[in-house]
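Colleagues,

Please find the record for the two-part complex below.
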Amino acid sequence: NAGVTQTPKFQVLKTGQSMTLQCAQDMNHNSMYWYRQDPGMGLRLIYYSASEGTTDKGEVPNGYNVSRLNKREFSLRLESAAPSQTSVYFCASKSSSNQPQHFGDGTRLSIL
Amino acid sequence: RKEVEQDPGPFNVPEGATVAFNCTYSNSASQSFFWYRQDCRKEPKLLMSVYSSGNEDGRFTAQLNRASQYISLLIRDSKLSDSATYLCVLSNFGNEKLTFGTGTRLTIIP
C-alpha cells in the first residue's frame, strides 16, 4: 500500500548546499509531478514528467532540476539552495490523462 | 481571470449542519474535475471525482454545471473530522497537468 513515497520527510540545509529529493511510486503511473506549497498558499508546479524519458517545466522551475530515472522514480534537485526555497515539497503521480493525481506525504525543507 | 477560483473562506459551520461551496473555472474545454481535501501540513487527498450527472459518496455530493462553468461540493451532517481545506481541481483534454484551486478552508465547530 505504499503509493507515492518521498524521502526525506524533513531536511534542513544551509544556503548554497545542494540536495536531491527522492520520489518513487509503485502504481505503474506514467506521469509524475513536483509541487511546492508555501504557508497559506496553493500548490505550485515546479516540474513534471508526462512519461518516462520526458520532463517539462511547470510554473516555478527556476533553481531546480529534475530527473525521471525510470518509470517509478522522479527526483528533484536543488543545486544551490536559497532561503526562498524553504517550503513543503510534494511529489504526485497519475496514470493517464483525465485521471486524478496521488500525492506523497511531502518533504519539509528549510534553508537557513 | 484565474483558471480556477474558489472562495478561500473560512467557512465556520456548526457540527451537523450542511455546507456547500462552489468553484468556478474559466476554460470551457476542461474535461475532468475533482475535489481534494488537504489537512493542515498534510498532502492533498482525493475526495471524489465529479461526474457530469453529479455523484454522491456518503455525506458528500458533487455536481458539475458546464453551462455556468462551476462545480460544487455539498457536505451533509458535517463532522468535526471534515475540518480541512477543500481544493477544486480540473484537467483539460490532452494536458497532463492538473489545475488546482487555492482551496476553501472549512472549520466544523462543536
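The mean pLDDT of chain A is 95.

Comments are welcome before we finalize the supplementary table.
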